[in-house]
Design a protein that fits this description.
This protein is mostly helical and 108 residues long. It is built from four helices and no strands.
Length: 108
């Protein structure tokens, strides 16, 4: 695995190219709302507060200019699909049918 300059390792669940470990402390300086400060300091106590915390995190990312990377392009065409399907069928046709003598599980 690669290690970022920020000291965080890139893993499949943590591939963001920025360090947001203390974003709550940073964002406190940008808001004067008691409600937002309470959520930032004490964490969410309800589903609505967790939505608000997520929105605050989005605002913080936007202020800092951070963006999540684009998802990979996983598009394929129908012709590629049919080509793969034909390959698998040809492999299946070449496979040896099992008989009771050569069945690895001991028969039918």
């Amino acid at each position: 695995m690669d290690t970022l300059k920020l000291g965080r390792k890139l893993t499949p669940m943590n591939t963001q190219p920025f360090d947001d470990s203390n974003w709550r402390e940073e964002y406190k300086g940008y808001t004067s709302s008691r409600y937002e400060l309470d959520i930032l300091e004490n964490g969410p106590k309800s589903l609505a507060q967790s939505w608000m915390l997520g929105a605050l995190h989005g605002k913080w990312r936007k202020m800092k200019g951070y963006k999540y990377p684009e998802p990979p392009d996983c598009q394929s065409s129908m012709s590629e699909f049919f080509k793969k399907q034909d390959e698998y069928q040809q492999k299946g046709d070449q496979a040896q049918d099992f008989t009771p003598e050569n069945d690895p599980y001991g028969g039918y």
